[in-house]
Amino acid sequence: MIGGRRLRSMEEVEKAIEKYPIEELYEACHTITRTLHGDGFDTCSIINVKSGKCPEDCKWCAQSAHYNTGCKTYPILSPQECLEQALHNRNKGIKRYSLVASGRRPNMVDTLRYAAIYREIRKAEPSMHLCASLGLATEDTLKVLHEAGVTTYHCNMESAPSHFITLCSTHTQQQKEETIAAARKVGMKVCSGGIIGMGESRRQRIEFALYLQTLGVESIPINMLQPIPGTPLGDTALLSADELLLAVVIFRLVNPTAYLRFSGGRAQMDRETQKKALYIGINSAITGDLLTTTASVTDEDMLLFREMKYDTKAETTWER
Questions:
Q1: Is 29 marked as a binding-site residue?
Q2: 71-80 CB burial, b ≥16 within 10 A, e <16
């Protein structure tokens, strides 16, 4: 979105980032973010409700049963454990809470257990927005979750279509698209993003941003790869701060109305880089536990967001 127009093609995005100095792009994206979204900042927290032994072969993931990573393995947590963390996070000022589970897709037995957890949370804290990230899901299971109070379903597309096929062979992006279509059909919003730094080219990052645009995604988690020993990407070199910030620019230009969400791997970024990303266009974040990687401390995160002139208490357009 340069000159008030959303960028819709590879050529337009490449032309923009070649034509304009990087500082001008930063300022343009900052203006887009604050003009379209104001100063409201969306926060969410997750709990890894079921861990390990995942049958999928995603090359970045510690929880895949295909790799020896030393990942913790456990069945579905108790409702009490989930409730306690939800209440703790709400008391910290976090607006939404999600169960995240390993595995290809939830069967109906597990779905009913998740639904019971959500009902307990909704009963105890009605103001908390409830989300779910449970893998590929059918309309039947999503309907059960929606009736239990879940308003948003998360299913990452992970990377550009041209790159995803090199990263996972056990499921397809088409199956992910079917999941988010089913979520929308039962009345849920959709959250879908991916991981930057998995060996993709800059052009493929543009392709990925454009792909999410075609899907109409309005909440885009941007993870930075945290190379995990034992996975095929365990020795991948980290992207430079400049490349990470340029990725934020690309996603903001292509998806001006979407919430761009700081997600996993953020601990590898220094504070100044995080501040720049927030200035450019990151206007939401996962804070607290971030699956199997080290998370930022919630209090420090909230301080950082306020320092960058965001209001974590204000209602956002994503919540409406």
A1: no
A2: beeeebbebe
Residue 83, Cβ density class (10 Å: 0-12 exposed, 13-18 middle, ≥19 buried) = middle
C-beta separation of 281 from 251 below 8 A: yes
Answer yes or no: is 191 a known binding residue.
yes
Q: What is the spatial distance between Cα 239 and Cα 130, in angstroms, rounded to a whole number?
A: 33
| Unique residue bearing structure tokens 């290809």 | 104
Q: What is the distance of C-alpha 97 from the center of its chain?
A: 13
Which residues on neighbouring strands pair with residue 44, listed in sequence order? 96, 286
Q: Is 34 annotated as a binding residue?
A: no
Report whether 71 belongs to an annotated binding site: no
State how far the Cα of 132 lies from the Cα of 99, in Å rounded to an integer: 5
Query: Rounded to 5 degrees, what are φ and ψ at 29?
Result: -70, -35
Residue-wise pLDDT tens digits, 1-24: 565 567 889 999 999 999 999 999
pLDDT at 296 over 60: no
Q: For residue 292, what pLDDT is reported?
A: 39
Is 162 flagged in the annotation as binding?
A: no
- For residues 212 and 37, what is the distance between their CA atoms, to the nearest angstrom? 19
How far, in Å, CA of 207 to CA of 292, rounded? 28
Instruction: State the chain's mean pLDDT as an integer.
Output: 94
- The residue type of 241 is A
Two structure tokens written together for 27: 């300022």
Cα 39–chain centre separation? 20
Question: pLDDT tens, 19-75?
Answer: 999 999 999 999 999 999 999 999 999 999 999 999 999 999 999 999 999 999 999
The side-by-side arrangement of strands in the sheet containing 189-191 is: 189-191, 150-154, 129-133, 96-101, 42-50, 282-286, 259-262, 219-224, 194-196
